[in-house]
Amino acid sequence: MNIVDRFLHYVKFDTQSSEESDTTPSTAKQMTFAKYLKEELEAEGLDDVDLDDNGYLYATLPGNTEKAAPTIGFISHMDTSPDCSGANIKPRIVGQYSGGNIVLDAAEDLKLSPEVFPELNQYIGQDIIVTNGHTLLGADDKAGIAAIVQAMVYLKEHPEIEHGDIRVGFNPDEEIGLGAHKFDVKKFGCEWAYTIDGGGVGELEYECFNAAGAKINIKGVSVHTGYAKDKMINAVRIATELQAQIPTAELPETTEGYQGFYHLLSLQGNVEHATMSYIIRDHDRKKFEARKAFMQQIVDQLNAKYGTGTVTIAINDQYYNMREQIDPVMHVVDIAIKAMENLGISPKVQAIRGGTDGAQLSFRGLPCPNIFAGGINFHGPYEFLPIPSMEKSMQTIVEICRLTALYNE
User: Fold this and answer.
1) Of 295, 140, 128, 131, which Cα lies nearest the Cα of 203?
2) N or C end of the chain: which has fewer CB within 10 A?
3) Given 174, 175, 391, 399, which residue is catalytic?
């Protein structure tokens, strides 16, 4: 099976995760896919194939060198985003894209346009996999899984490429921030690893946001509007008052690069009760702490105005900037850069305006930069995957394995 067929088969599985669930994996359909992958890895001849009760799948490609090569790993997530349907995905290959609009659904006039997505112009002449405009594609991160599995198959078929023990790991629930929570780092047994979860060719990331989530509850007092003066406390109005204090220059839609932000994910409520959910992000640890303190300050001010206990906030850290853990072991980045350069790929080292499972894993003792898988426009119906990009991801994995076997020379 080639890498394209592998990917097209993977996206037949609906693996959307759910923030509303309290199980691991968060959806049973992820386990269905995990069981299929287990059978596939066994059929491809990998060793130590192990699927645990939480949907974490591990396997080993044994080394074929007498050199003292480090054991390294490659990791991708099985779930797709809750932001867009992942059911009944109908992918289509646009052969040798010639430019202009790509019609996704003619009946509903859905199209992928370079006027809206100018990055399409970078892939003229290439075969591109697109959706039908009604679901996401699932390249995030089934392209990463396909690249890893195909790389292991390639190494088995080319024993002349010396490498040490290679571990692969596929996990659920990355899209809801829980992918690394039950990942067994000790069992994985690697000196370092790479998540294959980035976008376009050459992307290499070892910096990410420091991240926190904030849950806010607001208690109101409902009184007949005719007699509400000095009695009513309108919870949903207080929620809008809180949001109004967030600087408009510090929102996701007004920031880029290393700029942090506050993002209101949801606001629900009525006069008696309202809830708000935020994410807080910043690359700089001190600014990150200041952002959390600012949110608490707003809450304190509202309680001073409307009464103690009217507004409560719970802020929970989600992950930290993995650069803190990567800086002392920069050889893991250097090897990835060298692998790309050897393949004629220009590395695009950049900070992630988000996070990966690798951020959490790095703080659990497994340094884990992120490498491109090839997909573009994740989490929506305009997602697409240039086939050569996924193939280059696979080639980069193979070259990293080869270079790592030479690391101690």
Assistant:
1) 140
2) C
3) 174
Active site residue 174: yes
Distance CA(161)–CA(264), nearest Å, equals 49
pLDDT of residue 409: 54
Token output for 408: 């101690």
Name the pTM for this structure: 0.87
Token pair belonging to 204: 């290499």
Task: Check: CB of residue 87 under 8 Å from CB of residue 96.
Answer: no
Mark whether 317 is an active-site residue: no
Tokens 């807080």 map to which residue?
280
| pLDDT tens sequence across 225-275 | 999 999 999 999 999 999 999 999 999 999 999 999 999 999 999 999 999
Query: Rounded to whole angstroms, how far apart are CA atoms 352 and 360?
Result: 14
Catalytic residue among 40, 79, 140, 197: 79
HSE-up (13 A, CA, CB side) for residue 59? 25
* Three-class SS of the chain: CCHHHHHHHHCCCCCECCCCCCCCCCCHHHHHHHHHHHHHHHHCCCEEEEECCCCCEEEEECCCCCCCCCCEEEEEECCECCCCCCCCCCCEEECCCCCCCEEEECCCCEEECCCCCHHHHHHCCCCEEECCCCCCCCHHHHHHHHHHHHHHHHHHHCCCCCCCCEEEEEECCHHHCCCCCCCCHHHHCCCEEEEEEECCCCEEEEECCEEEEEEEEEECECCCHHHCCCCCECHHHHHHHHHHCCCHHHCHHHCCCCCCEEEEEEEEECCCEEEEEEEEEECCHHHHHHHHHHHHHHHHHHHHHHCCCCEEEEEEEEECCCHHHHHHHCHHHHHHHHHHHHCCCCCEEEECCCCCHHHHHHHCCCCCCEEECCCECCCCCCCEEEHHHHHHHHHHHHHHHHHHHCCCC
